[in-house]
Design a protein that fits this description.
21 helices, transmembrane, mainly alpha, globular, Growth Hormone, Chain: A
Length: about 500
């Protein structure tokens, strides 16, 4: 479910966020004259996309709180289907439904991404949450890679790409119905008994008391004023995730196609390296805490972003005609480290740091910032006087990465690696120690010891019975063996 949802949302978002730069959309507008009010490249469709994504995250907050995680995902799939139908309209309806269709597709991205992240995190076991969200991130990267391939290598019309992405999203709906509702949402809305029944179905085992205890402690823990700090950490992590997704992908696609010599497939190569990094991260995400992973990856990402920004303003790596090779090396190195670190940890933190009710508000708000942060780049890209200053966003990536690392110094990590406050990390360690002690006390009577005690009890009873038999004549032995048994009684015939 995470992989399919990530591929569909990633493909659709990458396609629509770079739509005005694609030759397919330009050809579409020229072929159907009057379909678009305004010129291609003036930012109209991109502004519509990001605005609809923000509205979609707001809708996702209400749906996640009142209707549950599954219905929120189903609603996102419905929005994508309606948007696909609208942009595929023919004849007179084409110009009328194009912009509403893009808006519906953007709203579906806004609904699906936070809803999938929250639902996947909550239904996973505590140890698998980092890997589960990483699968969503890998799917998102794979979808962006597909968008790049069909835009440059094997060119495919944008409507066909939209259709394919929406089909992938539609496959998520039956997959969602295989699993029960999130136990955290059931606990918040229906109580402990319903939550226990949900966990029994989800885990496929009758004994879920340990997990219920963990959920009770997580939901009733006093934050002690740490909510603002957690939101601040999530804000800067989400800003890094946003700028390294929407802005950086569009920037590299544009630069590779228009300026750097022989680098028209730079974006595809970079995305391939990013997904390679995410695959490698899958093997150590559960062995290292996310704080250490971010420290090991955000530092090189910040350095690479700073080098790229300085190159844009000073031609550090040579002029545009000759700098393609050096720039591509820096870009691919940067994307590889992004795959190692930013594919899972920021989204896991933005979900895992908050309680169930907090996820419906704080988490969806952070995902709204994920879409809002790129609006400045869209505005700069559509004004010729400001295009030369786009490199400021590269410096912003470096700056936000450094600030996020500074804030992480005051954060802690749970046993499963997810970022939290230091007090929550201490409570998590205390809870694990307490559960180990309880488990050890329950296992004091090992199976071997119990068996030996049972054998001793049987032997003692047997010995006691033998002693009583020897003390009384006529005795027990007579009934034990046929040889000593009494002869049968002979009844006389009448």
């Amino acid at each position: 479910m995470g992989v399919l949802g990530g591929i569909g949302v990633g493909w659709l978002f990458n396609l629509l966020s770079t739509l005005e730069q694609s030759a397919s959309f330009a050809s579409y507008v020229v072929t159907y004259d009057g379909v678009l009010s305004g010129n291609v490249g003036d930012g109209t469709t991109t502004f519509m996309l990001y605005g609809a994504c923000v509205v979609g995250t707001i809708i996702a907050g209400f749906l996640n709180y009142f209707l549950g995680r599954r219905l929120s995902i189903v609603s996102g799939g419905l929005f994508s289907t309606l948007g696909m139908v609208a942009v595929s309209a023919n004849d007179a309806l084409r110009s009328t439904l194009l912009m509403p269709g893009i808006g519906l597709l953007g709203a579906s991205c806004g609904i699906l991404l936070p809803s999938l992240a929250i639902y996947i995190y909550e239904i996973s076991t505590k140890e698998m949450r980092g890997k589960a969200v990483l699968l969503l991130g890998m799917g998102f990267i794979a979808g962006s890679l597909l968008g790049g391939i069909f835009a440059t290598v094997n060119q495919l019309g944008w409507i066909w790409q939209t259709f394919a992405a929406c089909i992938v999203i539609a496959l998520v709906t039956p997959v969602v119905n295989v699993f029960p509702e999130s136990p955290y949402w059931v606990l918040d809305r229906k109580g402990w008994d319903a939550c226990e029944a949900c966990l029994v179905v989800l885990r496929r085992k009758p004994d879920v008391q340990d997990e219920l205890k963990i959920m009770r402690e997580e939901e009733t823990a006093d934050e002690g004023g740490a909510g603002a700090f957690k939101f601040l950490v999530g804000l800067f992590l989400m800003l890094v995730s946003s700028l390294t997704t929407g802005f950086l992908n569009a920037f590299i696609s544009y630069k590779g196609a228009s300026e750097y010599t022989d680098q028209d497939q730079l974006f595809v190569n970079a995305m391939a390296l990013q997904i390679s990094g995410a695959v490698i991260a899958f093997f150590f995400i559960d062995k290292l805490d996310h704080k250490s992973i971010l420290f090991g990856t955000l530092i090189p990402v910040a350095i690479c972003a700073g080098i790229l920004g300085f190159n844009e303003s000073s031609s550090l790596l040579g002029n545009s005609e000759g700098s393609g090779l050096y720039v591509s090396l820096v870009v691919m190195l940067m994307y590889f480290f992004m795959g190692l670190g930013t594919s899972s940890a920021p989204w896991s933190a933005c979900v895992g740091m908050f309680t169930t009710r907090g996820r419906a508000s704080s988490t969806t708000m952070l995902f709204a910032i994920f879409y809002l942060a790129d609006l400045g780049y869209v505005y700069m890209h559509t004004h010729e006087s400001m295009v030369a200053n786009e490199y400021l966003y590269l410096y912003a990536i470096a700056g936000f990465s450094v600030v996020a690392l500074v804030l992480l110094l005051g954060a802690g990590t749970r046993k499963n690696g997810v970022i939290c406050t230091k007090s929550e990390a201490q409570r998590d360690r205390d809870r694990i120690a307490r559960m180990r002690a309880e488990r050890a006390s329950r296992n004091t009577r090992t199976p071997g010891t119990a068996r030996q005690r049972n054998l001793s009890r049987v032997r003692s009873k047997s010995n006691a019975g033998g002693q009583r038999g020897n003390a009384t004549p006529g005795n027990y032995q007579m009934y034990e063996t046929p040889a000593n048994a009494a002869p049968p009684l002979m009844h006389a015939r009448a």
